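Example with several molecule types.
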Amino acid sequence: MSLIVMKFGGSSVGSTERMQRVAKRIIKTKEAGNRVVVVVSAMGDTTDDLIDQSKQLNPNPPAREMDMLLTTGEQISVALLSMTIHQLGSQAVSYTGWQAGIVTEAVHAKARISDIKPTRIFNALDEGNVVIVAGFQGMTEEGEITTLGRGGSDTTAVALAAAINADVCEIFTDVDGVYSTDPRVVKCARKLNSISYDEMLELAHLGAAVLHPRAVEYAKHNNVKLVVRSSFNENEGTTVKEEAVMEQGVVVSGIAFDKNVARISILGVEDVPGVLAKVFGALANNGIDVDIIVQSGVLEGKADFSFTLSSSDADRAIEVIEGIRNEVPFRETTSETNLVKVSIVGAGMVSNPGVAATMFDAISKLGVSIKMVSTSEIKCSCVIAAEPLNDVVRALHTAYGLDTAEQVFVGGPSERR
Amino acid sequence: MSLIVMKFGGSSVGSTERMQRVAKRIIKTKEAGNRVVVVVSAMGDTTDDLIDQSKQLNPNPPAREMDMLLTTGEQISVALLSMTIHQLGSQAVSYTGWQAGIVTEAVHAKARISDIKPTRIFNALDEGNVVIVAGFQGMTEEGEITTLGRGGSDTTAVALAAAINADVCEIFTDVDGVYSTDPRVVKCARKLNSISYDEMLELAHLGAAVLHPRAVEYAKHNNVKLVVRSSFNENEGTTVKEEAVMEQGVVVSGIAFDKNVARISILGVEDVPGVLAKVFGALANNGIDVDIIVQSGVLEGKADFSFTLSSSDADRAIEVIEGIRNEVPFRETTSETNLVKVSIVGAGMVSNPGVAATMFDAISKLGVSIKMVSTSEIKCSCVIAAEPLNDVVRALHTAYGLDTAEQVFVGGPSERR
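Resulting structure tokens for the full complex:
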């Protein structure tokens, strides 16, 4: 007998038929002799509808009241799913986040889970119930209702799995698992049987549609075994765990990419201590995330440096930099948008020299110039122009031996919460 | 400075405009120097929509899960109302039933409030907030979410008013107050300025559209001053309290009526001790409410008796009676449907002899026969055929001097919860 956490997203329970299919799958898992805890998101468009309603009354509502509003979405889901399980002849009990003992920090809209008190869950399991917990929500020590922000339901599932020491946390989605790259770009993308937490985090941009990075971090930290699998079939899915089984000859597990990248360069900066801290401190204070940073050598006491960030933040970032010109004198800024970042990811890279060289070679053979490079132990990223992205991804996928004979069909990514 | 509880029903907050109007009224009350606690029901059709959704998945869902589902309706209302108040520049905080400290018995769908712990409400008031509490809901000592059943939001308002020792509990509705009779029947019906709890309870059938009887009972028991008033204007409304000011010369305060009454007679019952207890015990065990009971004299050891009940229960009641024929032998049953009960209600009746005689006289002058009579200290009820009901009500309204010069316009009764 295993203790299993099963997590279903909003699109999995978005209609009567889908709700019934999910209920049957849960009952089947229970009847196979397992103890089952289910985490579920708000159904289909519920959250968007609630947000629309609120905007009509207050375009900028207090976060506390928004949490009061939005948590009803998951409460509706859990109640209806429990009723459906009862209708199919099995036994279930639904809990809100606070009833399930999920305690969060005193922050609204993006609280972090600080504790889980699973007594009620264990009692309900002992009474023979499937336990259904509302994802995305919790309660502060003071009894305020909070939400966990994006990826919240995945995080709820992983945190619950850690708290009750579950054997596995299954994340159900509309694809078969985690792929070597986006199957919409590379038709012969390979479904990965297993992958490490770190690789999964690096593949986050591919994985965002199937697993939220925050949940992966939580799983890594608490050593929770994750399985990403389809809610439409019984295929095995992808296992995410600490020590992924290295597949024979596979050094690179996947190709990730990030669209809408911009580069900003600050030229002729006076090279005094603390310059970088001032620039990136100012950007961080304005909520602007910076990705790759490259500094060139210093010439005549002046330095050039460049960094990448999301295209949508580029204009604001330049304003911020101009705003600190008094503190950080420089000659000029230049910027370039319509870039992408493509990355090869693999836990085997660290022990295989020459992996990055294969990447540079494959890209240059396409006549594409590499604008920036960044490497870590398990990945190598290149910033290139957006236009040849698909060709580059396909070339890399082939170069690292990831192509399969089969072609995969995958629909659009589901909404995540 | 007064401490005021204001209760708004679902139709009062059923649209963006209505929500804004309610918010303005609340802010105005607060800015007049009062401390304000608001109780609100689910918006418009929310509850019905949730019930419809659940029926598709389980036609007979567990009451516990239904409570989980339906309580989201009020949680949505309180969050949106709070946001609206913030948008209008004032300060508010919303609470679910459990956050407001409303503790109920461990019964689903129709729990009774067992305790209210108002610490959070007082703290929030002290911080300058309007406090908005979800009606119709509470939590058991074990942390299960419960609902209070029909009239639940009125009951929440009255119970909160009692717990925080409010100066008044204002129930907002779409009519100006409690009327001497249904203005749809008698155009010159009189709005009552004040009325006692007992009279209000007897007028329940008129009052059901403006105030739930259970809330009146709770108010009486806890001596909470109620005001029933319009959410559309600033008129004074009707005050319901222990000692209503008797209006000059008014002995009868109002004319109530109850449609869809049936009479069942059991003829030739053996007159042995405990017969009545057996019959009405069996009916009660089957959830059938009986109203007026009349027993004729005993002839040759056999008795006849008759009782009234809701028309919709008549067939089932006869089945129940036939089912206990072995224990309670009788000759036959007869029944009559399409009857009504009309009642005069007034705290002054007890000290004014001849009040009932005026009623019988007025009815007989219309050529209508009285089938059954029942009296108490503050009312006299007659069961008559349904067809002449409106004429009888108008005649009684005139006979007791209740007619006013003005004509009242009143829309249909609002949905109550």
